[in-house]
Every structure is written in C-alpha cells, then in structure tokens.
Amino acid sequence: MTALMSGLHEVLPANRVFTDPDAVAGYAHDEAAGAPYTLPAAVVRPTSTAEVAAVVAHCAAEGIPVVARGAGTGLSGGANAVAGSVVVSFEAMDRIVAIDRAERLARVQPGVVNDDLRAACAEHGLWYPPDPASSPWSTIGGNVSTNAGGPCCVKYGVTRDYVLGMEVVTGRGEVVRLGRRTAKGVAGYDLAGLMVGAEGTLGLITEVTVRLRGARAAERTVVGCFDDLPSAGRAVAEVVASGAQPSALELIDRFCLRAVDDWKRMGLSADGNVLLLARCDAPGVAGDDEAETVRAAFDAAGATWSERSTDQAEADALFAARRLVYPALARLGAVLTEDICVPRTAVTDVLARIEQIAGEHDVRIACIAHAGDGNLHPMVVVPPGDDEAGARGRAAFERVVDLAVDAGGTVTGEHGVGLLKMRGLARELSPAVLAMHRAIKNALDPAGILNPGKVFPAAG
Amino acid sequence: MTALMSGLHEVLPANRVFTDPDAVAGYAHDEAAGAPYTLPAAVVRPTSTAEVAAVVAHCAAEGIPVVARGAGTGLSGGANAVAGSVVVSFEAMDRIVAIDRAERLARVQPGVVNDDLRAACAEHGLWYPPDPASSPWSTIGGNVSTNAGGPCCVKYGVTRDYVLGMEVVTGRGEVVRLGRRTAKGVAGYDLAGLMVGAEGTLGLITEVTVRLRGARAAERTVVGCFDDLPSAGRAVAEVVASGAQPSALELIDRFCLRAVDDWKRMGLSADGNVLLLARCDAPGVAGDDEAETVRAAFDAAGATWSERSTDQAEADALFAARRLVYPALARLGAVLTEDICVPRTAVTDVLARIEQIAGEHDVRIACIAHAGDGNLHPMVVVPPGDDEAGARGRAAFERVVDLAVDAGGTVTGEHGVGLLKMRGLARELSPAVLAMHRAIKNALDPAGILNPGKVFPAAG
Known about the structure:
homodimer; alpha+beta; Uridine Diphospho-n-acetylenolpyruvylglucosamine Reductase, domain 2; Uridine Diphospho-n-acetylenolpyruvylglucosamine Reductase, domain 3; Alpha-Beta Plaits; five-stranded antiparallel sheet; 37% helix; 20% strand; globular; FAD-binding oxidoreductase (chains A, B); FAD-bd_PCMH (chains A, B)
C-alpha cells in the first residue's frame, strides 16, 4: 500500500488521489444489484491522458489492478472495484474537444455525459444517435466500453457503429491512437472496434472520435395496447415483416405499467396489459405512411387499442414513462436487470418462458424490451430484506440467462458482461473462444492489471 | 515437400489437392499490379469446414504457410502466394446456407459471389448492401477479409457493418464460432469484427452470417459536369453541408472519362472534365427533394451542366461506365490502383496534390472516387514495357500513400493492406500499435502460418 500511495503521489497532484474510505466508497461499485465489490485501495481523478498513462504504468510495474469508471451507471458490475485496486474515474476528463460539422464527427473525452454530447451536436445541426436509458448520466467512455444501445438502435445501430477511432492507454501504460477519423478504413486490425465492449479489460479509453449524423426528421409515435405478450410479440413480427423500419419499437409489460402507475398515476395500465411504443422518422409523407403501416401491423396482431399520437406532449410522456420503469421497480425492491438478446422470431416464446420461470421460482419478473431488436430486459424484483426471495431471484436470473443461450441468443445485448453475466458468457462461448479471449487479453495486458476478474475467467 | 504432400493427401481427397505448376499458377496472385508472389507448393479446394480445419492443423504442425483465397480480385496482393505455401481456395464452398426473411440475415459460405448473394436476397425482398466494383466476381469471404466497400457505402456502410457472426478456423486448426446472429450483442470481445479486414492473417473464414436490409426504394440519379477537380470537390462539400444523404456520390476525372470514351464511345467526356454521379433513395417525395438538393449543390459549386436523369437506362449506363473505368485504363498499361481515404474536407486539396505528384513524376494518374466518403482511387497508369516509367509510377504511388497519411487519412479505405500498402501502414500506425498487431497475431496464430508477411512486418 505504501508503494502504491507513494507511486501515485509521484505521478498525480495530491488533490487527484483519494484513499480515505469515505471518499472512495462512492466509487466502489456500479448500479448492478448483487454484484460483488470491495473498497478500492485508491481512487484517482486524472485530468489528462498523460496522467492516466502515468497511473497505469505505475500500476503495471507494481502489479496493482486498475478499474476504469465512467458515471457508474453500469448494470453488470463491470466498474466494481476489486481488492487492492486503483479506480480511475474519468469524471474530470469531460471535455468535448471538437465537433466538426463538415466531417460529421466529434472528438470527446471519456467523461462526457451522453446527453451533453447530444445537446452539443444538436447546436451544430448534428445527431449522435446511441441513446441508452442512462443517457442523462452515463458517459461516452462507459457507453463505448459496454457498446451501449438504446431505443433508436433498432434503426440506427449501437455505439460501435459510431466509434471511428480512439486514444487508449494500454496495459503497458503506453498511449496509442487506434482507428481513424475518415469515413472508411481498413489499415490493419480493427483495434478500436476491439476496445468497444471490452469493459476496460484491454485498455483505458482517454479520447473517442465518434461519427455523427445530420439532424433527423421529426418522429411520429404509434401506440398499441395488447391483452397479452403473445399478441404483442406477433405485432413486432408483423412490423418487421411489413418492411417498415421504425426508429424505436419498445415493449412494456403489465408489471412495469402498474409500477409506473402506482408511482406516477399515469393511467398506463388502464387500457391493456402490454404496451408497444413505436416511432417512425422517415421524412415527409413516407414517415406518415410508415406510421400507418406500423399501426396496421399492431391491429392485425390483435391490439385492443392503437393510435398514432398526434399530441407530441403525450407521445413524449409515453417514452418518458418507459424510462421511469426502472426507478419505479426499484421502489419495490432490489432489481436484477437482465439484458438478453434473442432472435426476433423467438421473442414471443422467450417472453412466455420467462413468465413460466417466474412462476416456477415464485418471483416477479417485469419486462421491458427493445422489441424490434429482440433485446429484452426482464427484471427480477426481489422484496427488500427477504433473503430467501433473493436466492430464488438469483436462480431465476440464471435460468433466463440460460434460456437466452438456448434460444440462439446472447446473454448481453447492450449492458456488458461485467460480473453478473460471467457464468452465462462461459456457457455462450466455446472453450476455444474463451481461450482466444485470454490470449488477446494476455497480448495487450501482459501484467493482467486491467479490470481483472471481469467478463471471462482468467484461467480455463 | 513430401511431408506437405503426404499430409494433405491424408486429410483431403486427391482431387482436392493440386501441385502441378500449371494447375497452381492460376492461384498464385490476385489482381494487384506489381505485388510480388511465387508459385504455391500446393492449392487445395476444400468442400467443408472440417477439411479446412484439417489442412490448417496439418500446416500448423509442419510450419507451412497458409494463404486463403476467394476469387482473386484483390488489388493489394493480400491473396498472393508466398514461398512454400498452401493456397486454400474457397471456390468449392460457395453455398448460400440460409436466407432468413424474418430475422433479416443470411448464412453463406465464403466462396459465394457477392452479386449471387444480392440476387438471392432480392428474391426474398431483402438487400445485402456492400457493393464493391468487383461484385460480379468477388466473394463474401474476400469481401469480409478486406472489409470491402463500394458506392452505396456512403449511406449504408461497409462490409463490417453487415457482419454479425462467422465460423473461423484458427491458426491452431480449431473451428470456432464468433459473433452472434442477434441484432445486438456485447458478450465478450468483438472477435468477429477483429476478423473483418484481417486479410486472412488471424483465421480462415468458413462461414459468414450477414445482416440484411429490406429492399430499398427506387433510386434517382443526379449527374453533374465540372470544369475542374476543385469545383467538383466543392460540390461534394456542398452536398454534405446540405444535409442530403445520397446513396452514392461518385467522382470520375477526365482521364477516366476519356479512357472509357476511347474504348466504348459513350461521349462521357464531351460535356466536361469531371463527372459527379449521385443517387438518392429516400422514399417518395423526400427522395425527389433530396435529388433536387443535390442538383442545386452541384450548380452552386459551379457545375457546367447538371441534370436529374429521368431515363433509367441512361442512369444505369452512367454507373456502368464507372465500372468500366478500371478495364478501360488497363487497356493503356499496368494500373497501380490507390485506395486512400481522407477527410471529406481534404478531398479537393488532395486531388490537386495528386495532379502535382503526377506532373513531378511524369506519369498519368487517373482518378475515380467514392467522393462522399473521401475514398479516392487514384490510378497510376504505366505504359506496358516501359521500365523507367514503371519506376516513376511506383515512386508516385508511394508519394500518394504518404500524402494520405499527411492529410489525416488512411492508406487504404476498402482494398486492404496486402503487400502494396505495408510501407504506408507502418507509416500510418505508430510502433506501439504495430506491436499490438504483432501481439494479437501471435496470440491467435502462434505458429505464424496464416498469410505470413502480409499487412504488417512480423518484426519491429
């Protein structure tokens, strides 16, 4: 510990290094319920790439674990501190370095909040699409490290699709520039892409260059109410089959609707058990046609009620309600949040199986979904203080993970593996693929100091 | 050689192994002018993943180089045989395994020709966008290995954006499945993405799962003629600034126009020195508006003539003419094809600098470009049999490579590094990034047998 402290104080100003237990406690874990963590040995708040490199070089030399941290909004434990670790918080590296309208790109430090980047881009008539529910708080560095998604990804893709290049501090403490700033490029291995979703295990991202789009056309909102999950699932399949390309296609089940109603009195659950929210942003008449196509698909699948919302305030309120689901459920207990992604055609079956699993384990599993992508967020809600229910909830959580793999899907669509999905990942990937992960990890982080013990087990 | 042959005959039927010099000569190189190659020791034509794995395992054990080959249409020497190598030709693995309309994906063997996949998708009302000029001949395996682009990539992205997952034979001869079949996923490192553009140096791709789009709306074609490259470059900038998102934005310079005219008598060079071809596929009225926006941008930049083509046959002929440029130039001599990609705002300056370089080296450099992406294909045309001109051409080629790096661009936008861009790559990437390449190569191909000596130098 003395070597750690004296080393850190050599490379950083004293006011950038924290070791007091009260000061470091707020940096010990992210928002994943039930993921293990310890207090870190120290928290550092670097202000420059050079400071990050100096910290990592020191830690590599001393064999000290390094855990990168954005806003701590992660849901898998990826940012949780491990024993004896230094947490590198990027909150002081929050500068938008440049927004280039002619090139349609932005250079940002990792600590920039997603919504802040989006707002800054909007001032230039530009748009950064990835829109995780955490966008008011989560940072670009964290978004890149988990390959964050969001509702608009059904049409516009995930964070990976917007990352052109980055500056990274490697496990050796070297500063490298990966990727490019041009629209296309295939000069060597896609190392920038390799860092996306690597959850801080291969390098610390100190700057990101993202691709931007022009401001998009206005969105129309289409709402559909359904009696049950199968009919909502059919509606999603009908939309896909219709050829329409909605810019959002979200599902909210009855548990979620009621939880929001109980809290906010929005009357969401008055008209049905399952709500589908779609948006269409094709320009002009084409967008109107598309919205009508989506509504017809809802009706064909047996919607009890459907409407193209003509009231923008009402439409915005519905999407705001979707963002309220998580806090509304958190009022009821600990929430174990799933993030499975399954083939679109399997969504209905998987939702039915999740209801079965909930019954078999006597737990409540509420569900929201980026339904158009097959990305489901079943949330196991465990009453506070009930240890037995907690154990049943964890068992149900793992059954849902297995269900995703068995359905030809993946254990994580957009939240990352962190700690909570490690068992599932080892089931999803073959031993040979896990060995490739270890070989690459060892190649880029030979000291094994970067976020150790996360994502995949270090030994086979 | 005896160990090689007896080993190959143990794992493959005799009619799948060729060693006769006449038989293997057609597999010794791709279409890159001036890239070195030797006759391979053997060519194998496996029919299954198991056969590929057996070949690689044998070669790994014996230390025999393995060079993967699609249709051999590459322009960088990536598929060129090296001394003592076994070339694995995927021409017999050309099956479209499945096209799934509901999931909007296809599973294909690597030897499927790009246009064949596109035609098969069209029968299902689906679309595989990447459209390299080689699409009538080039294969998906090669497209993935070079991250191929094409005209429509300015709106729809490159091959990487469509690769969901793949089956790969690693350098150890193991068969692994990488990536996923779901719309989203972040379960572990993006190893499928790492294989895209790796030019066969990290594994042999034996099956690819690609994302598809729904059939797109009809395209409008807008043509603009310009007196000189600077005004055409300004037109491209005007289009980008307008917010229009054309589905193609191609530039053809006077050398190319004249070469096609001299061959095909199309009259392309009658109206101007530089042609811009744009397409707009936004649906309905929005597409009409977009086409008009593009035309206005052309005019604002000083087009001598512009037109929205109302004659589909004429429009198709113009894009066909663009594809005739390469064979038209090849009639005039050896063509050293560049593939640099520069920031969009640098296009005009870079085009002017290329003209200077041509003058300084007394060579002809013709130019086509995916102008909307900043992806330029300057082509140095060297008269046949003129060794001195050949040397001047190679010198000019390397100056253009350096120019791309100096302009903040990359040495290859969509053709790959192969052999021809190795010097440029080492200039573009820092020594630390090259070391990361070597570490990853060593991690996944410890015997160093997969396409050795390509992309980056094996030692620093």
